[in-house]
Amino acid sequence: MCPEIARPDFSTQLNSHQGRTFENVLEPTSGKFSTHSDVWAFGVTLWEIFTCCRERPFSSLTDDQVLENIQQMGSQSALKHQLERPSLCPASLFSNAVVPCWQYEPQDRPSFEALHLQLQVLIHTKMP
User: Fold this and answer.
1) Whole-structure pTM over 0.90, yes or no?
2) Cross-referenced Pfam families, in alphabetical order (predicted)?
């Protein structure tokens, strides 16, 4: 059994905050909470940590533009507007642990076990 970071029973309470919805952390293919959406959200959380929470994900986009961005990802296999690597985040960590969390197809995202192993490797490797 794998614990989920985001619980479905909280989804109605967590759907919006101060008038802004959380589409940027939901499962892009189904809009539902799952272990795969938890991995997506974990990637966003890592990004937020490395920005010291000074930026909001996709803050330059409206909620509708965030949804459009994610829908476009399904047809073009890439986000039109991507979250850039924060200056405090080592490039190897961003490319090997953060970006893989944002694969469009849920089965293409790493498991938390794989992320844990990848983070251990990166921690024990001298990062630039």
Assistant:
1) no
2) PK_Tyr_Ser-Thr
